[in-house]
Design goal:
- 3% of the residues lie in helices and 46% in strands.
- It is mostly beta strands.
- The longest helix is centred in the last third of the chain and has 9 residues, at 330-338.
- It starts with a strand and ends in a 7-residue tail after the last strand.
Length: 482
């Protein structure tokens, strides 16, 4: 499986559709798989939702609940769920490669689907025109679609009164990470509040050209007037902003229709990278999603930036009581960690450091089998957070995985305080620093068995090491279906 698709909340269920090959563990025969959850933690797998049809593969897209039945697909006064996706036809001797936009609808909470007889609803004859994200825009009273002209590095916006008939509005791009051979994919556009002001965030996933090589997820902050998206003046003139600086966060989009009483904007990413995903050493399955994350906007010294944290529902997996270091010197914290032996593979760890300065770099080490360590280095002098999986475990299955071993995220350390939280799973590490203003997600493949955590500050004078305000280690229960 790969990209998350059709993410929508309806009648107490979070729906997650996703790119899926029903016939094998490598990419092909793209269809929509389907899972639902009431809590974003425990998922029930449902039958295949949208299968490949003839020569048309079901590429990425979105889903909405048509509460006003603008489409006319509803029955018995109930709103239909409508999927909007890219139909992909490969080039043959008789036909050219084409990507167009299509509809399917469901009147039984997404369990069964009917293809719209008028498909495709948008066809410009392009081979690289895909990944529609659709939402209802209250201010203009119409549906808005954002999708990409992948090779041109452009997002195109359309509007419709009924999901069937679409009018082109505007284009955005190229911008940010957009140099060849980069292609743009999987866009999303949504509002976020910051200090009582509404700003709009445009996500554009790219491949290659990500911050760690290969796949990546960039974002833009600006304003949307119902027709055009315009960049905020604080957006950097050079370079790009990244949702996640790790190697394994791609095709990220957000859930639609999350209740206003909840108020969160929840994002999910595919946890892999096109550089090596076909060879990741897992069986009988291949690929996974990240944990769901709640997005906010924060004002920083450099402008508006995204912040993210794992959804609160994940705390229900924590086993009680946690292991807790109440605070003390760096040496005392390192000694305490050395005494926490036989840790399980599933961990949720929180740490807070004080007195961090340019003279106090340090490393958090996650150890597994003999000689296996994943290192998290904090380097205040250069404002960097580094995740190094060079010796994390199995890495020879693909040259690109071995080559992509050291990943950096910028961090701003104010008043000497540094916070970090990381979620360790059997073969992944998701890290959130400085209240989620920096995120790094990486696959790792250590030997199975017990884990340990250590602190190191080699080369530092004893008086220059930071203090450790707290460490909390939560052992986690598995969320996998039993």
């Amino acid at each position: 499986m790969n990209d998350p698709n059709g993410m929508v909340y309806h009648e107490g269920e979070y729906h997650l559709f996703y790119q899926y090959n029903p016939f094998g563990d490598k990419w092909g025969h793209m269809s929509w798989g389907h899972a639902v959850s009431s809590d974003l933690v425990h998922w029930e797998h449902l039958p295949l939702a949208l299968p490949e049809e003839g020569e048309i593969m079901i590429y990425s897209g979105s889903a909405v609940v048509d509460f006003a039945n603008t489409s006319g697909f509803g029955r018995e006064g109930l709103p239909p769920m409508v999927a909007i996706y890219t139909g992909h036809s490969e080039e043959t001797k008789q036909t050219k490669r084409v990507e167009d936009q299509r509809l399917a609808y469901s009147n039984d909470r997404g369990r069964t689907w009917t293809q719209y007889s008028g498909n495709p609803v948008i066809d410009i004859g392009s081979p690289d025109f895909r990944d529609p994200k659709v939402f209802w825009h209250e201010a203009t009273g119409r549906w808005i679609m954002v999708l990409v002209l992948a090779q041109e590095k452009k997002v195109r916006l359309y509007a419709s009164p009924d999901l069937k008939n679409w009018t082109q509005l505007s284009e955005f791009g190229p911008a940010g990470a957009s140099r060849d051979p980069i292609i743009w994919e999987c866009p999303d556009l949504f509002p976020l509040e910051v200090d009582g002001e509404t700003k709009w965030v445009l996500i554009v996933n790219i491949n290659p050209g990500g911050p760690a090589g290969g796949s990546g997820c960039q974002y833009f902050v600006g304003d949307f007037d119902g027709t055009r998206f315009a960049l905020d003046p604080s957006y950097p003139a050079e370079g790009a902003l990244w949702v996640d600086y790790g190697s394994d966060f791609y095709a990220a989009v957000t859930w639609s229709n999350v209740p206003k009483s909840d108020g969160r904007r929840i994002v999910l990413g595919w946890m892999s990278n096109w550089d090596y995903t076909q060879d990741v050493p897992t069986a009988p399955w291949r690929s996974a999603m990240t944990v769901p994350r709640s997005l906010t906007l924060a004002r920083t010294s450099e402008g508006l930036r995204l912040a993210q944290r794992p959804v609160d529902e994940l705390t229900k997996l924590r086993e009680a009581p946690p292991l807790a270091f109440p605070g003390g010197s760096f040496v005392e914290a390192a000694k305490w960690l050395s005494e926490q032996k036989n840790l399980p593979e599933l961990l949720d760890v929180e740490m807070t450091f004080l007195g961090v300065s340019e003279e106090t770099p340090f490393v958090i080490n996650i150890r597994a089998g003999v000689g296996e360590v994943t290192a998290i280095a904090v380097v205040p002098a250069s404002g960097k957070l580094i995740m190094d999986r060079t010796h994390s475990g199995l890495n020879g299955f693909h040259v690109a995985f071995a080559a992509s071993a050291r990943h950096e995220a910028p961090v701003e350390i104010a008043n000497g305080k540094f916070t970090v939280r990381f979620l360790l799973d059997t073969s992944s590490l998701e890290l959130f620093a400085q209240d989620g203003r920096a995120a790094l997600t990486d696959l790792i493949f250590p030997a199975p068995g017990e884990r340990s955590i250590s602190l190191s500050s080699e080369g530092l004078k004893a008086l220059s090491v930071p203090k450790v305000d707290r460490i909390t280690i939560h052992k986690l229960k598995s969320a996998a279906p039993k």
